[in-house]
User: What shape does this take?
Amino acid sequence: CSCRSSRRCIRASRCNSRSSSHSLAVRHDSGSEGSCARWARSPSACWWRAVSVAARELAVSADEVRAGFARFGLLDDQVRFLEGWFRDTLPSAPIDRLAILRLDGDLYESTMDALVALYDKVSPGGIVIVDDYGILESCRAAVTDFRSQRGVTETIYRIDDSGVHWQRSTA
Assistant: This one.
């Protein structure tokens, strides 16, 4: 990013997500929208640089996740961990039905990947919970695009400043 402050510019997300051509925008601490200086020369290099830095910032090890489950008494023989990117692991995940789908994908692509792979597995009357909808435009755009493409019209309810949920139609 041209601001030379990669930590502060990590809030990178794909913009114009409603079209097939995506661009990268960065919100600087000043609150103004800027564009990546490398975008015009090499969109993929710029995007992947931002994604790789974001991945390091957002990454959590499987051991940390297991420890969290264990801390709350949720680690039992019904829990299966799938390590890897959503796009690589979720389409072939050994999941038949879900009563609750709780997503925390942060970015447009990961949120969309999870919805595409798992939404049809949510039972009628099941609940879809999306973290970061209220605070990350990239997440909100993915949910909006997915719901529009699939004709999902159930009411979205706020949980708090960040999360939302809706109940899948029983029809």
